[in-house]
Amino acid sequence: MVLADLGAEVIKIEKLNGGDDSRQMGPYVNGESTCFFQINRNKKSLALNLKTDEGKKIFYELAKDADVIVENFRPGVAKSLGIDYESIKQLNDGIIYCSISGYGQTGPYAHKGGFDLVAQGMTGLMSMTGVPGGRPLKSGIAVYDIGAGITAVYSILAAYIYKQKTGRGQHVDISLAEAGLPWFTWEAAAYFANGTIPEPTGWRHRVSALYQAIRAKDSYMIIGCANQRTWEKLCLEVLNKPEWIEDERYKTNSLRHEHVEELEREIEEITTTRDASYWINKCELAGVPAGPINNFAEAVNNEHYLAREMIQELEHSVIGKMKVIGSPTKFSETKVKIEKPAPLLGEHTEEVLSKLNYSKEEIQTLIEKGVVSQYSHVPS
Asked: Which residues are the active-site residues?
């Protein structure tokens, strides 16, 4: 989706029976999956049976002129179908072929199936999410599914730059279980330095204080004093506690972190006297980073996101009008285009085959033989 937003022509190849798995994920509007709708905009859909010789032939014809192929089969499946990197490289030496799997194409776990939740457990994320002593918690979003996709995007673009310089393509191997591991910067620093195993910190930061959720009179809010300057501004201009600057418990970040429970209790004795909006406004005037803890409805209707075109609307032939999350990338010279809604299953089968010089009669024959299919709406 990101590559399509950035201008690539993306042809999504789906199985004939049901298509991409996310098409079976609700909620539905008029029988069409809104889950699929959210993550497949700007793409074309070709419903193709890759287990047939004629289906492989069509795939090979597309692969000859492709710049990039992305697949997310379990390792070995693409090879069994004859559409793996080595096979396609024989047709297109410059191909950038990206494989996304649970654990990667090599290693002792390569054969295992992988999902976002499994990766969250594997990397240790769930052992450090939640509150101390509580049940391990997953992230609120599919962080590694998204993370693997983002990793694939920048890796593909890096491979494309290499291809521009050398003319050579390559295989890009992305693993869900690895994509998020480099994000553990604070945790790795502590563990590799002194063997500290990170534990859940709940609403607090692992090393900074005050940098956490704080309770106000009507709700919780975020206050982030990530350095000494903002901490002193909080004391002087927001909380009216200048004595805390020289307090032996709070003089440095390390000391504040050491006494964070005591610090939190003393701060909330003050902040619970007024609503969150009052304190957030005071923080902003003082130059102390702060903000609300929005629910999702509040987030997507926020004036800043709306002004930055982070919420857009598309017209779908079956669903009707539906909003989508916009692109976070803003270029000075080129515009990220969110123009086409997610495709219906097989919506572009005829278009794609016509460009490969298949006649209408030949396409109809392929449909009858179960090699390809065209769109037919079946309410779920």
From this structure: 145
